[in-house]
Design brief:
Helix content is 29%, strand content 23%. By secondary structure, the chain is α/β, with parallel strands linked by helices. The protein has one domain: Maf protein (Alpha-Beta Complex). Strands 1, 2, 3, 4, 5, 6 and 7 form a seven-stranded mixed β-sheet that branches. The model has no long low-confidence stretch (mean pLDDT 97). Bound molecules: inosinic acid. Inosinic acid binds next to strand 3 and helix 3.
Amino acid sequence: MRLCFASNNAHKLDEIRPLLPATVQLLSLAAIGCTEELPETQDTLEGNARQKAQYVWDHFGVACFADDTGLEVTALGGAPGVYSARYAGPQRLAEDNVAKLLHELRNHPDRTARFRTVVALVLPDGTVHEFAGAVEGHINPELHGTGGFGYDPVFIPAEGDGRTFAEMPLTEKNGLSHRSRAVAKLVAFLNQK
Ligand code: IMP
């Protein structure tokens, strides 16, 4: 089955590729000729994931899936959540987002947080299906590691050994992560079809 992953984030593509069965031919947005920015104007992860996947289906007629991820920090009432990419402004810079997060949390004893991903899939018959995954953890006061992307240098998963996601090889992050959990549900669904 040919399936487009509706994201321009190369890190996400690298994470997802090894999780999919050989029966899926994974296509990038560039491979289907989609060069425009995908709309992402909803106020929930579910809404944004559906909006991106639906856009590709409507404009390119290719079965596809999109993910939307948020970092939900307990002491910040679930922020930055759906606004994680633009937390420190429209420039969407990970460095600025992480700096703002550490500043906001500087006086909070509770540093617990979770990553939550929603994947929306549009099949060749136009039906839409949704899969979610989450990982609990906490925000380290300092950046550790050079791997991964986004908030990875400050996120320590509760099920790990105290290292941040950015200190783990890809396979290890994939063993624990929000996105891999949502994609595992997507794969189980595709396998039943
Ligand atoms: P989006 O799903 O691409 O909209 O991501 C929202 C924000 O969360 C962006 O700032 C990403 O860099 C960040 N993000 C998404 N997934 C991850 C992850 O697996 N680790 C760290 N940060 C992430």
